[in-house]
Amino acid sequence: MREVNYIHHLNGVLRKFSDDENISSSHRSLYLAFFELWNQKHFPKTIMVSSKQVMALAKIRSRTTYHKLIQELKIWGYLQYRPSNSPKIGTLVELFRFDTLPDQKMDRTCSVSEQVPVQKMVSFNKHKNKPFINSFKQTCPKNEQVVIAYFKSEKRSSLEAKKFYNFYESIGWKLNDKHPITNWKACARNWMIKADEMKNDQRPNAPSHIRENMDTSQDKNYGEPL
Questions:
Q1: Per-residue confidence at 34, pLDDT binned at 50, 70, 90?
Q2: CA-CA distance, 168 to 178, in Å (whole number)?
Q3: 6-95 CATH, one of 1.10.10.10, 3.40.50.620, 1.20.58.340, 3.20.20.70
């Protein structure tokens, strides 16, 4: 049998992992720990391993989990192992070969930096911006009549609704920080609250007869009531 091809084997088993719904990150971690030891021993048919050593490489703390994962990898056709009950003799593990599968060839007509990663970044940005644009269109009222109807439902006047609509229509339905309005009805309710606050702040001046009685002069008759 020909010598194991490190790259082809690793690519083959990773492709098999991606197609296998049973494989979890813990299975991958355990298999790669075995693969690392197999590579260090120059890919013999079987390797003798210590469970303690493999668990440390795979970042697995529970021995129960370790035995469960290795048994599942055996059942699913990734390896074969023969456990040992002797502390002096390690477990014998045989990793099945996946370097015989046809490997994907790289397109060498352009440099690595010019290949798929750059194209994926552009595509990602386009898809990322699309939902944002669509959501902005959906949060603006269709027309002035929609705004007037909403203000009437809140017991407000049509004049106030027209002022609100004309103001935000003129600035492109954006807030002071230039961010698009995400909920125009919430913005309208804030408009109503501020309008009420301004009305409450405009308190009427004191009656004129009180001001007249408070005026003093040299001819003032202090016997008269205020």
A1: very high
A2: 12
A3: 1.10.10.10
